[in-house]
Amino acid sequence: MAIIIGYLLSFLMAVALGGNDAATPCDTSVGARVISVRRAILLFAVFTSVGALTQGYMVMKTIGRGIVPAIDLLGVLVTVSVAFSWIMFCNYFGLEISVTHSIIGAVLGYGLASYGLSGVNWGLVEKVIISWISSPFLAMVLSYLFYKLIIRATGGNSSIALRIMPRLLIASLCYSAYAFGTNDIANATGVYVTVSEIIFGGAPESDVMFILAIIGCVGVAVGGLVLGARVIGTVAFKITRLDPVSGFAAELSNALVVHMFTTIPYFLFGYGIPISTSLAGVGSVIGVGLAMYRSAGINKRTIMKLFTAWVASVVATALASYILYLIIFPITGPILKPKP
Questions:
Q1: pLDDT class of 156 with cuts at 50, 70, 90
Q2: Residue 65 DSSP SS3
Q3: Which of 6, 69, 135, 160 pairs with 167 at a CA distance of 20 to 30 A?
Q4: Residue 192 contacts residue 212 (beta carbons within 8 Å)
Q5: Count of C-beta atoms within a 10 Å radius of residue 206
Q6: Distance between CA atoms of 268 and 263, rounded to whole angstroms?
Q7: In the structure, what pLDDT confidence band is assigned to residue 82 with cuts at 50, 70 and 90?
Q8: 10 Å Cβ neighbour count for 121?
Q9: Residue 133's pLDDT band (boundaries 50, 70, 90)?
Q10: Cα distance between residue 129 and residue 144, in whole Å
Q11: pLDDT at 287
Q12: Nearest alpha carbon to residue 276 among 104, 56, 107
């Protein structure tokens, strides 16, 4: 039963993930009016699947690894339910948030309820927060520089840009979706990995991870097609005005940052670093907006709304997880404790 629950929760997380994070690769091509939302999401689903199935193993997450000493099955059920509910709530209102933020917030709530303040690895939490800041900043700087370089290389020739850039933008969408699949699909598969460690005392074998990647891909595709349009609309049209040149610069920057965090640490240390692809995507859009229009061309109200949602993701999920675990634990107990 626990194994079935693990598969089901992984699929549900993938649906929520696809609904919110489809905006990360699709926003610029839709915002530049190069491709329709539906076609963009279809390309997103296909290339995310390719990335997840070929390099998704490089970033293997578990729920709460390192943040808390261990997590029981009730903790998994509570944290995933809370994170899923919050992500779906934000999907409904078209807010692009970080799925990673939501999960970590829920784990923090569980950790405080189960272990107290001293049981949470605050050093690791600090490193995670640093990655949240560094990835969008790096994407913003890269997209700013790429835009300036492209304009200089083309000499401001609009005919070249109009002829070539739409194709390059669609290509960058595909690459960005691939990079997303290598890094972020682990948010969904990590649920099952955690359940497996509770029951068997170790991570699943490679063939099970491949099945999980397929389940994650299907869920992401369903979420993107059914729920993705609202969030895409927010990032595509409400931050800054995009054209094919700025869209290409932003999407390529986002893809490079995400893929870099997946591959370089894997080859150096044996594991890729999970980052917030949403924050990197928004950072890249802000970068080209600054390059084109300076600060006057950035919709600060939308940025503040997204920033508030990012912070609220951690606070709301932590509080909900904390309260829910304290209410349910006296009734059910831990259900299953991690195997030593």
A1: low
A2: strand
A3: 135
A4: yes
A5: 9
A6: 9
A7: very high
A8: 16
A9: confident
A10: 23
A11: 94
A12: 104
User: Model's pTM, two decimal places?
Assistant: 0.85
Per-residue pLDDT reduced to its tens digit, 276-332: 888 888 899 999 999 988 877 788 888 888 888 888 899 999 999 999 999 999 999
Lookup: tokens for 18? 């696809």
In terms of Cα–Cα distance, which of 253, 109, 117, 272 is closest to 173? Answer: 253
Query: Is 278:135 a contact under the CB 8 Å cutoff?
Result: no
Q: Which residues contact 252 (CB under 8 A, 6 or more apart)?
A: 143, 146, 172, 175, 176
CA distances for 297 relative to 29, 127, 181, 304, angstroms: 19, 32, 31, 15
Domain boundaries, the chain: 2-319
The 8-class DSSP code of residue 270 comes to S
Number of neighbouring beta carbons within 10 Å of residue 22:
30
∠ CA 48-45-282, rounded to 5°: 70
Closest alpha carbon to 48 in 229, 257, 280, 221: 221
